[in-house]
Design goal:
By secondary structure, this protein is mostly beta strands. About 5% of the residues lie in helices and about 45% in strands.
């Protein structure tokens, strides 16, 4: 059984930066696609960014392109989401997930298509 633990969330002013981490245990991370998702109160879950299986291909939601960067460190079994130029509309609970997804499907997949999910970390952007 894999376990994913998110960290790095917090409160930041607009224009600020945060780096989220997703530490994985019980799996070999290099064999999985990684996705970052978020959910704001009253809204549906939204795919933010992901890295698909096998190829070093990354995908981003239009709302975060140019501001967020997804990465992984397989040796540390950890994935990251660097968030710059944060906006109030980025406020949400952010979740990481891993699974066997290819191409852009890693960004649009249904919840059950990912194998494991973390518990989430709160990001609040306000002045």
């Amino acid at each position: 059984q894999a376990q994913l633990v998110e960290s790095g969330g917090g409160s930041v002013q607009p224009g600020g930066s945060l780096r989220l981490s997703c530490a994985a245990s019980g799996v070999t991370l290099e064999y999985y696609a990684i996705g970052w998702f978020r959910q704001a109160p009253g809204k549906e879950r939204e795919g933010v960014s992901c890295i698909s299986n096998w190829e070093p291909k990354t995908y981003y939601a239009d709302s975060v392109k140019g501001r967020f960067t997804i990465s992984r460190d397989n040796a540390k079994s950890t994935a990251y989401l660097q968030m710059n130029s944060l906006k109030p509309e980025d406020t949400a609970v952010y979740y990481c997930a891993i699974g066997g997804l290819y191409g852009s499907s890693c960004l649009t997949a249904l919840d059950y298509e990912y194998d494991y999910w973390g518990q989430g970390t709160q990001v609040t952007v306000s002045s």
